[in-house]
């Protein structure tokens, strides 16, 4: 499989090159030249596989520069029940009522769905850097969950150093403690005076400075990196198999969304032929994506219009991965994608809007603080299940958008323990904490507060890496 930039520039590349490269040199995101098509016989065979075997099969379609036996070993080592909360299914389905399910994606080490891809990414980085005898300095941006998942996946890995930017004061106390309590020498936390989008802009600006990127060997763990999305495609297949008995059935997914990485993986699964009826995008009050799916107009917002909400990991107004979907919608017209994503906003034609809903089967909805609290309460009372604020946003929208006769799977993107304040407000109770995490907020913290300034981040990296 070869990969191309959404903006059409540069040569086609192989998987391991784009794994280490992250952002394409023309500022675009990598996509495979085409989506492999899954026929009925293959889908039937995959239904019987374990999660690790399924991951191997799907990854093999996109990775032809890692020997099969090595890839099989990496997926088997990554997707073990011990790493994912002792659950052999890895992403078990929890049925709330007939036809309405939660797919558990948050049983990994940092209690959010980011572990699903990040654990594999850590193994892939170590493998490829070892093969090349190279090192990588990862520059990442987080609104709360990517950061801790990346740091837990990369700590102690040979050849990898992490610089993680987060919006100062905007993550939950638990999320801050998860990241800032790490004392590993290869982990650096930078709290930026700004919002998540500012952090992501810095990551892209540093990556677009090609001289700096190459000399300092800068890579990325955000969903900028195609490997993140690829790993996420696997659980759409796993969720489909768990919710259905036959491959003639269809299901829909509702995905709590911010940077559009998770639902973009669902889009890829659907393009491969997975029988998905609808992909429902759920946003919080930062509803740029919902506005797009309702109106056909994409208008990212600035920091002043980006609200600090009680589902903080989705406080995003400039969804990076959205560019991948638009590249497909625009028929991979790189020049048009480039123009759209370097303009303040863009608008679809009527035919394209119809295609978003029809051919690509997207729908959307939004949720507010009051909706979130009500959904957490109702879910607990009606189904005996506590959900986190982001999953609650998904559930609220799923209940509005589900279609008769089509099972709906809501992706559970984090555990309630990460957002105790909102859970207390909704239920009056402390959410349960997995063993070993009591008192994490009181641990000593290692973090540098920094201005929203690309040059300041470059200087910090320079002070901490060997640039030779
Ligand atoms: C808990 C949680 N839910 C939902 C999202 C949104 O996912 P995405 O950015 O892939 O759209 C995030 C952040 O990515 C998250 O951390
Ligand atoms: N919500 C994310 C934001 C970064 O998204 P990513 O998928 O691009 O890594 C977070 O929790 O950090």
TrEMBL record:
InterPro entries per record: Ser/Thr_deHydtase_PyrdxlP-BS, Thr_synth_N, Thr_synth_N_sf, Thr_synthase-like, Threonine_Synthase, TrpB-like_PALP, TrpB-like_PALP_sf
Domain Threonine synthase N-terminal: 2-79
UniProt keyword annotation of NAD present: no
Keyword entries, A-Z: Amino-acid biosynthesis, Lyase, Pyridoxal phosphate, Threonine biosynthesis
Root EC class: lyase
PROSITE patterns assigned to the protein according to its UniProt record, in alphabetical order: DEHYDRATASE_SER_THR (PS00165)
Enzyme Commission designation: 4.2.3.1
Pathway given in the UniProt record: Amino-acid biosynthesis; L-threonine biosynthesis; L-threonine from L-aspartate: step 5/5
CDD domains hit by this protein: Thr-synth_2
N6-(pyridoxal phosphate)lysine carried by residues: 114
GO biological process: threonine biosynthetic process
GO MF assignments: pyridoxal phosphate binding; threonine synthase activity
Catalytic activity: O-phospho-L-homoserine + H2O = L-threonine + phosphate
Similarity comment text for this entry: Belongs to the threonine synthase family.
Name listed for the protein in its UniProt record: Threonine synthase
Organism from which the protein derives: Inhella crocodyli
């Amino acid at each position: 499989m070869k990969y191309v930039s959404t903006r059409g520039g540069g040569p086609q590349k192989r998987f391991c090159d784009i794994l280490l490269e992250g952002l394409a040199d023309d500022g675009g995101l990598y996509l495979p030249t085409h989506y492999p098509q899954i026929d009925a016989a293959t889908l039937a065979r995959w239904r019987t596989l374990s999660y690790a075997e399924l991951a191997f099969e799907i990854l093999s379609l996109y990775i032809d520069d890692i020997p099969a036996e090595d890839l099989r070993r990496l997926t088997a080592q990554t997707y073990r029940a011990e790493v994912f909360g002792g659950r052999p299914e890895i992403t078990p389905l929890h049925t709330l009522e007939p036809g309405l399910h939660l797919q558990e994606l948050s049983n990994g080490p940092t209690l959010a769905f980011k572990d699903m891809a990040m654990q594999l990414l850590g193994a892939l980085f170590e493998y490829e850097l070892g093969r090349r005898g190279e090192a990588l300095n990862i520059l990442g941006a987080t609104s709360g969950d990517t950061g801790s998942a990346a740091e837990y996946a990369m700590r102690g890995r040979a050849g990898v150093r992490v610089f993680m930017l987060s919006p100062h004061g905007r993550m939950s106390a638990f999320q801050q403690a998860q990241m800032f309590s790490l004392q590993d020498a290869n982990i650096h936390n930078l709290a930026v005076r700004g919002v998540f989008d500012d952090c992501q802009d810095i990551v892209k600006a540093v990556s677009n400075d090609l001289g700096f990127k190459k000399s300092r060997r800068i890579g990325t763990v955000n969903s900028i990196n195609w490997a993140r999305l690829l790993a996420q495609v696997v659980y759409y297949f796993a969720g489909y198999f768990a919710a259905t008995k036959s491959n003639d059935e269809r299901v829909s997914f509702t995905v709590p969304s911010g940077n559009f990485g998770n639902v973009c993986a669902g889009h890829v699964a659907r393009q491969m032929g997975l029988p998905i009826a609808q992909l429902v995008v759920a946003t919080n009050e930062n509803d740029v994506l919902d506005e797009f799916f309702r109106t056909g107009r994409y208008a990212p917002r600035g920091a002043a219009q980006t609200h600090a909400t009680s589902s903080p990991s989705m406080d995003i107004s400039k969804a990076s991965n959205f560019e991948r979907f638009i590249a497909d919608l625009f028929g991979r017209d790189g020049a048009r994608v480039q123009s759209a994503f370097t303009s303040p906003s863009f608008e679809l034609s009527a035919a394209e809007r119809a295609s978003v809903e029809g051919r690509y089967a997207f729908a959307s909805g939004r949720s507010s603080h009051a909706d979130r609290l009500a959904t957490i309460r109702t879910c607990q009372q009606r189904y005996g299940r506590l959900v986190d604020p982001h999953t609650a946003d998904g559930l609220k929208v799923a209940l509005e958008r589900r279609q008769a006769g089509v099972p709906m799977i809501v992706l559970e993107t984090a555990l309630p323990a990460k957002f105790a304040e909102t859970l207390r407000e909704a239920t009056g109770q402390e959410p349960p904490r997995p063993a070993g995490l009591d008192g994490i907020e009181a641990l000593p913290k290692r973090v540098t507060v920094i201005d929203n300034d690309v040059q300041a981040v470059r200087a910090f990296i320079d002070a901490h890496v060997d640039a030779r």
